[in-house]
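Its record is quoted verbatim for completeness.
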Amino acid sequence: ENASLRRQWLASQRRQYSLDNTNNDNKKWNLLSKALGSNWYKSSRQTTWELRIQQLKQYKQQHGHCMVPISYKENKSLANWVSTQRKHYNLFMAQQPSSMTNERIQQLVDLEFVWNRWD
């Protein structure tokens, strides 16, 4: 129960932080950063995105492309994530609910991400 309350409180703080245009100068946010670490305001989904983008950059450095095969045994999570990004991109382009954003699309475009693995 305490863990659930902590998660709810932290989610509430994240929402408030994202709505606060002056958050860089706010003492409350600075205290939270000191107590919880500099990434406290990021959701686990956002942190996962950043991790997978880094892994994809590393993959591209090694292999020269971003076509991570679904059977990639060295990092199955990355392989699944790449597949999921293609699905979410298609949903986004069809104006369906998706976690894809213009910013995320640009990050992937910058890596020369292949949206259709059959191209």
In short: The two ends are 50 Å apart (CA to CA).
